[in-house]
Amino acid sequence: KIDVGTPTESEKPRHTFDRIKAILAGHDRILFMKGTHSSPMCGFSKQAIGILDSLNVKYDTFNILANPDIRQAMKDFSNWPTFPQLYVRKQFIGGLDVIKSMVESGSFQAALAL
Description:
Strand order of the largest sheet: 2-1-3-4
Shape: globular
Helix content: 40-55%
Oligomer: single chain
Mean pLDDT: 88
Number of strands: 4
Radius of gyration: 15 Å
Distance between the termini: 45 Å
């Protein structure tokens, strides 16, 4: 007997991608990170939050440590192996190194307005 709400092993990747798409659709700007805004669990996530907060960016966060399926699928979904990962209006912007580079070049504000 299979629970209708639980995907089978073969359905899991597609189901998880659908969940990621739904999360992205519900948030203009979202940072997939290790930990939470108030309690980041890695230095890279903490730095990303620091940059976004210093620029007064309105954004939401998603704690990938609380959801291993999303954490693993995000790597394939974005084709980016590390976290944090910033999305603006469903478009992948990049990780911490990309965010830093864009801030330094002055292109980050334009990316936030996608």
